[in-house]
Amino acid sequence: DSGVTQTPKHLITATGQRVTLRCSPRSGDLSVYWYQQSLDQGLQFLIQYYNGEERAKGNILERFSAQQFPDLHSELNLSSLELGDSALYFCASSVVEAGLDTQYFGPGTRLTVL
Amino acid sequence: QQQVKQSPQSLIVQKGGISIINCAYENTAFDYFPWYQQFPGKGPALLIAIRPDVSEKKEGRFTISFNKSAKQFSLHIMDSQPGDSATYFCAASKNRDDKIIFGKGTRLHILP
Fold first, then answer.
1. Residue B101: its chain A contacts at CB < 8 A?
2. To the nearest whole angstrom, how far is the Cα of B88 from the nearest Cα of chain A?
């Protein structure tokens, strides 16, 4: 158990809908990262937040947005969903250990768009 | 543009054998190279990580070898066990607290 929690575990929805994925980082971790894992694209970085502020953006679509709240939990909002958005969505939080930044991943949310 | 290339895509090894997974990177600004292990239905879990000022790092049966001049690094799993069957990802990032760029993954199967 990494200490990172994600809800829900599974989500099934229809095209055109909007969903919100939630992530709670490990206690004390200020950074939260979101990743998308699909069969054809592998693990792709979406976005990073640090202590409530957006720090880095990756291959995140304009239909997707995220935020980190004062209690450090984060939400990833996916709107106007398309079939191709079906994937596993992971969040990770990080801590610096022995000089190395270590990202701990949550169990993921499996999104199925029908 | 894929910045971390990983091979092979899949690997079958006999129990007790050595599993070797190779990765190559392009961006010389990368200075942190972690390996993640992922079991079906689970999130990736950090296995071992290395910085480029070290040529080798060993933790138990897992060893990372790093060749800075060739921009290559590899994971060796000694005395491979069926419980090691999983997907392994090599990765790289530019600095502490930066996004991780993952390789495509290697599906490892250890025969009992």
1. 45
2. 12
Read off the pLDDT of each residue in A77-88 and give the average, rounded to a whole number.
Answer: 96
Burial class, A27, CB count within 10 angstroms (exposed 0-12 / middle 13-18 / buried 19+): exposed
- The continuous run of DSSP H or E covering B14 comes out as strand B10-14
For residue A5, the cross-strand partners are: A24
Q: Could you read off the pLDDT of B45-70 as tens digits, one per residue?
A: 989 989 888 899 999 999 999 999 99
Three-state DSSP class for B88?
Answer: strand
Residue range A25-45, pLDDT digits in tens: 999 898 899 999 988 778 899
Give the pLDDT mean for A101-112.
91
Q: Give the Cα-Cα-Cα angle A48, A97, B77 (nearest 5 degrees).
A: 95
Give tens-digit pLDDT for A1-19. 889 999 999 999 999 999 9
CB contact under 8 A, B98 and A33: no
Which residues have a Cβ under 8 Å from the Cβ of B91 and sit 6 or more positions away?
B4, B33, B34, B35, B36, B100, B101, B102, B103
- Whether residues B98 and A56 touch (CB distance < 8 A) is answered with yes
Sign of CA dihedral A48, B105, B25, B23: positive
Q: Is A111 left (phi over 0), alpha (psi -120 to 50) or beta?
A: beta
